[in-house]
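Hi everyone,

Forwarding the result from last night's run.
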Amino acid sequence: MHDSLSGLVRAVRRALDGGPVVAPLPRLFPGAPLPDGTALVVRTSGSTGSPREVALTADALRASATATHERLGGPGRWVLALPPTHVAGLQVVVRSLLAGAPPAAADPGAPFVPDAFADLLAPALAGAGPVYTSLVPTQLHRLVATADDGAPRGLEALARCAAVLLGGAATPPPLLDRARAAGVRVVRTYGMSETAGGCVYDGVPLPGVRARLAPGKDVVELAGPTLAAGYVGDDAATAAAFRTDADGPDAGTLWFRTSDLGAWGPDGRLRVLGRADDVVVTGGVNVAPAAVEAVLAGVLPDVLGPAVTGEACVVGVPDDEWGQAVVAVAVGPDGPGRPAAVAPDELARVRAAVAATLGAPSAPRRVYRVAALPLRGPGKVDRARVAAMVRTHEAPTTG
């Protein structure tokens, strides 16, 4: 393990035992007071604007790790493949410490390479007991794509893990199906820095965690022992996001209001539909980008060719007629660095497929291809930058 990571692991162990607070990134508000019991100060990804600092107590971190192990079937060896500066990577460290063994990890900052990941997993898989890891969809895609190209070591090693937590972004259904067909025990997670990481696994809250939808808004709210103590240096944001019910059946319960829309499926599991502020209003109709992206994941490889991953970002851009136009930006291995429009017949096929599933308003009016989508964190697509990229590309030129 790299010296800097070893130092972080030791610091987190001390923080969990009441020692100095750990901040894996330079503090944004170094002089701001911290709530009692704070062990870690973690930055959010900045999806709501500027990044915030979240104060996580030792109790919340322990509760999250304990609930994870209970859901997965018991403690085991953890392999760290995520940056230890974000909450998902830090929770791998916390779970490892509670399980009594430091995580196996590559050097921080090293690129994710399937064969190297297989080498990282090998010592843990050779030992006794279950082996766990946590990935984002982009990493899983690389493992699957490399296996499909004739180098399956990484995917085969992953399939030997007792469970693979997958979160940070929505997973295209074809990718999930392909991984499970290869024997990978994928557990989809939902959570954020404010909930000490993933707290809903495969649509079911972890032990002690509760989920509900805000009446009339369908915004996901979460409660339980994994909640953060609040934002550092921003009392107004803390008061707006962390609210205690004054009356009713949950009087006295503290809830964290997320920025995500949700729905309860027929099986009683929580379905996250995407961020409330990502909704595109086109012709007076609300369109959820996540729902369109899920359809595109299965449509794009059929229309644009099997080399296209199905990964896409759907955004709204200003439109004189519709208010906002639904636009999709798809990723392909031979995509250009700047947006390139798909052929008219390809666009027609994509629109027809989306309209048949979600209705005509959800059908993208334009579809572009790019080599890669901009990210704002581990596996998280930066929608604001995608929308800005489209607006810049479509802006009329002068001269």
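Residues 289-304 form the longest helix (16 residues).

Cheers,
N.
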